């Protein structure tokens, strides 16, 4: 099918685009008779796509149009390989060959409908760290040059030092149009041969939408990329920028071709576009099921089936079928998509460590919450437990109270403050992992390193201050116990935030399943020891409590005290079953390892996008 000439004013764009290599091989993506079925909750098979065929070539910008539920996004996901469930039949080829599993993720970029970024980074920083993962084997200078080129091509140079912003935190940043162009820029860093975009104009005003599509039109032509985007109802001057339209209705193609060919096709079927009416609005009106009444639903369904039958019997469809004859003979085998990442695990960890540190120091809200919590507990505990006299019975009782409330404060602050670290950025991490930028494990370890050390520093400060106010003995052992316990709960908070998408639910789950049980079953209460003594063996607070006690009093903690002259007794004699400080430290470290493994699993599953090629 011949390409439509480009109708675009390049005046608002940069004149010095990086031109593509004149010898760049032209590419072709072809899909033939794609039928996709899923099983719903009632165990009923539902057809999402029905015998969908099409082709897109280098330099073409293709619009996939249709009403809600027509299958636009599903088609993009299948063509890119971002799906796993359901049954798919048909053939997809790239340059007349099945897509190669390890290379395919590096050949395409995907711009999702929702633009998600780390809000505390600037535009340039977002592109710079993304380039570290997307440009295999590139030097730092080459990465900087590519970032500068992409910013220039998409008009982002003027805002390169502006933070992206986070609406959930009421943090102002770049505009919605600039965010969309930033999303496109990130996907373009590695020179993809194909660019998929899921409704890139959604949520934009008409001028900004036109501006975004103009940039895409210019880049598609200059870079000789294949550009395929789903779009709902583009206005007429946006419609004119596309080389080809694919109109879907109820999962089947009702037309493929240029805008002019679409006008002619629907006119022949008795549906000419009325004067002064946007063609895309009119086409969507006549190809979308009308469910307002049973009569209208029946009428619209019959009309859509008529359109589908007319297209399948048209010369355009027959010509596409002849071109697809060779492709249909290629047998694809469905398999999970696996690929190698750009960086080795250590380098990946170091890049993410730098990113995590930058995000931490700029997160004034979470830092403020943690500091204010630390100041409040230090003041209250220092006053209440001033200079404990642990030689007497009431002193030992007060010591148990101090230790209990101190560990409660650590578990609460370290177990809740870090929850938003992954929870608020789940969609961003999911987008980046879907693009095969990094592993879940390296991201989790990097965030834990930064946030764990940050919270551990408060345990050091606590130890120094309580040494002077409460009278802590052996403050080094006290600090180490607090650091280990604090970092354990940081791991748990990160894990919960990675898996649970709602802040309220995450905090409640953390409190009910981790913080309260740790306090109740640690062995601090003698009555619990008598009823269900085995619970303390599974509680990390048991080992921290005993580390503090043994660091303070020695291995015989809790020490006997004199009740009356000549009568000695122990308070809660069964509080510790491991009688040595370093033995408790080792057991606490085992909980560390188990929590880290659980945290990586939570982040992996909470931010995973399943992939599959066929």
TrEMBL record:
GO terms for cellular component: membrane. It is found in: Membrane. InterPro entries: AAA+_ATPase, ABC2_TM, ABC_transporter-like_ATP-bd, ABCG_dom, ABCG_transporters, P-loop_NTPase. It comes from Gonapodya prolifera (strain JEL478) (Monoblepharis prolifera). It is a multi-pass membrane protein. GO terms for molecular function: ABC-type transporter activity; ATP binding; ATP hydrolysis activity. SUPFAM superfamilies: P-loop containing nucleoside triphosphate hydrolases (SSF52540). Keywords: ATP-binding, Hydrolase, Membrane, Nucleotide-binding, Transmembrane, Transmembrane helix, Transport. The chain crosses the membrane at residues 365-388, 400-423, 444-466, 478-500, 507-525, 580-604. This is p-loop containing nucleoside triphosphate hydrolase protein. The keyword Nucleotide-binding applies. Its main location: membrane. Residues 29-275 form the ABC transporter domain. It comes from the Eukaryota. Pfam families: ABC2_membrane, ABC2_membrane_7, ABC_tran.
